[in-house]
Amino acid sequence: MTAVTATATTQDAPDARPGSRRSWAWLGILPFLVFSGLFLLLPISFLVIGSFVDRSGSLTLQNYADLSRPDIVLAFRTTIEVSLVSALAGTFVGFLMAYAVILAGLPKWLRAPLVTFAGVASNFAGVPLALAFIFTLGQLGLVTLFLRDTFGIYLYQQGFSLYTQVGLELVYVYFQLPLMILIIAPAIDGLKRDWREAAENLGASPRQYWRYVALPILMPSLMGAAILLFGNAFGAQATAYQLTGGTIPILAVKIGAQISGDVLRNVGLGYAMAMGMVLVMGVAIGCYIVLQRKAERWSR
Amino acid sequence: MSAQPAFLVLRGVRKEFPAHVAVQGFDLEVPRGDFVSFLGPSGCGKTTTLRMIAGFELPTSGTISIDGQDVSQTSPHDRNVGMVFQSYALFPNMNVADNIGFGLRVRHVKKDAIRRKVGEMLDLIHLSGKGGQYPYELSGGMQQRVALARALAIEPRVLLLDEPLSALDAKIRVSLRQEIRAIQRQLGITTVYVTHDQEEALSLSDTVVVMSEGRVEQVGPPSAIYGTPATAFVARFVGQLNVLAATVLEPSVGRISVAGQEIVMRKPLPGLVAGSSVTVAIRPETIDLDAGADASERLQGVVDDLQFLGPVIRVRLRLDGDGGTLQMDTFNRPGLVPPELGQRITVRFPGSACMVLDGSSGAQEGP
Amino acid sequence: MSEQTAARSAQRRRGSAIWWVVLLVGVAYFTVPLVATLQFSLRTKVPFAAYTNVLQDPVFWSRLGYSAMCAVCTIVLSVALVVPTAYWVRLKVPRLRPVVEFITLLPFVIPPVVLVFGLIRVYSGNPIPLVATDLGSTALLVAAYVVLSLPYMYRAVDTGLRSIDSQSLTEAAQSLGAGWPTIILRVILPNVRGAVLSGAFLTFAIVMGEFTIANFLFRPAFGPYLSLLGNSKTYEPAAVSLISFGLTWVAMAMIAIVGRQSRGRVSAVGVR
Asked: What is the pTM of this model?
């Protein structure tokens, strides 16, 4: 057997088959490729191709042009607004909470339960979450009734409703916030104590340290997390569906309706909408990865 | 050491943690411009003491003063001491120039003045073209030089270095430590240097403070630390040492018996009587290979190990009787015929090169 | 202590108060909806009636069982697919790593609703009309879940492989005479067990709570059941919600326990 060095990972010393070339090694991942081809790549290709085809089967860009239909533009706008607001709220509050248990001098044992709970809460999205908020802030919700009976403020008379865009944003924050905590906690850990001490040693006050050193170092992680949160909300369907049923124009819900029946009266348009979603998500994930790499490079 | 008034003074500095005492009653006076090393194994308290000077730890008791001013309770960002960290601690979001200028920026120095100073510093550390680069683009040695420049840019009263070279390759360590010393001499800045590497401490310092388990074992110039160790710990920690068991024969002239062979140390051994056991130590380089004719002491034995270390040949001798082993280093001079394994040889050394180590409490030695 | 240090400590204590408030507000935001759900579930005239109704409802159990079975199938299929692939990529075809990583990143980019859209379109007619049959639809569901779990599984296993230096272990095993099956089953798999288990528990939590794909494939799963309940009954949905929340909690706790014992942390992101 030839000596295998650390870099020569493509040596096929264990293949005793004579004459076997390196170029057949890829067959090892064939099952994976077949599976993802059948159940991931093929459906996507179907949608991609379908979005460029009109009802008669010929190539067209009309579907994409049709995305400028007012109801679809409204859906895009609303979805983006909801995602943006919940992402920003989640980023801001999530960062504060993570900072609180890691660096702000609170007891160390608080961190583990918070992170575990964040893990649970970030998965508590969808139908149960919508229901939970209905039980809290619905017309007969716990908090609604509490405010009415204790302070005489009946939310629904004041104009608040859970079943609005604002209500949906409020609900989305429930899984955005914990996701933020999970992402930013390691980044805050990565703030080396040495940096703070070096800054102090050079004469910086705590505010100067945060302004010139800590926040800039955290910025790629913060922005990356915010973008990830945006993407997370953008693609969500179950929560909105359960809460509003379609009264609020959310893209994912609209696509769901399209699946159930051709409500857009043009399947190709549905494909184009789906592609629009994928594009937005793709850009978001791409930005996140780039920012992650930058953050990693700095923390070396 | 010069007779200048002390610039950095530590009096009775002590640091207690809930689990243990890290530093016990430390006293030190450092003249202005001196290069002082704290030398010792991990956990001896040297870094804790340094951090107390920097202000990152508060002494449990005792005072620290710089240039006559008591800084024991001053916060770190008011002390104006520059610190170089073991991990460099360069701010990754800033380039080299911004890192170096950071201390000036937080003091609201004007931009041109900052730029000028940064330029000076870059010249000082020989990285003049690299101001625009980021830390992750630089090698370890370069990053450490930038860290040094950053600490010096604020013109601190005292420069502190916490094992700055331990993360670097051996070759870079040697060249960089010489650079550090050259810069320190050029600027005349009082410097405290923490290391566990005795070669660094001995080659760089005006004064060495050897520490062990929170205590100061010895303070003195490198020659004294090496040549006249005050305690057995210092003798063992600094440099190599042969330790032999011996029996006292005549305390007045220092005649002892090692491995059944007699040695005269030519100095009295106070407090010891004939027949008592004693531990002696000899440095390997004081021993010579050939028997020679002069009035040196001699020991006989059989060669049981031979190491060729390049410039030096290391011979291990098993002494006759039950005397233990003796290790000696001899220069690999041209024409030298090294002994062979198993060969019986005689080695010689000056009697005064013998040091007496008595258990772990103290060592007496020659002049 | 001098005045300065005493002042510093007092300032730190005062600062902490604000952060306590921040923390408590956040915790309140999280617990109130859960408390509300609990309270709703107990509002029935007969105490715990909501729970007894639910637990006595055969539909509840059949839906729960169906989702659990799908979860198990998903986990098995996912492990069988991901572990050898991650191992092979790491050891034999590192050049293909970008390709495989891109594929495992795609499910992040494709929202579940879009995925099910595509799946239905592909498999609702010729040549493979999976949607037409129950078994076919269930198979499609499991396949979709495997796709959803790919990012987490792959990343967890890959990290696990990296941390155990799978290359050296393989070479050591080979030099001692082991063949491939032995290596994978007895050397690699046991050492990435922690990562695999973490991924498995996360997948379990995701599958149990999943709604979108199950709904549009008309599968009798737990997610659509809860949705239907939420639209028809008043108090039972609260009880089921809490049960669902409890299940997720158990899964996360298992991940924390397993994760603590080994490498291969899984980032816990799931259903939206």
From this structure: 0.79
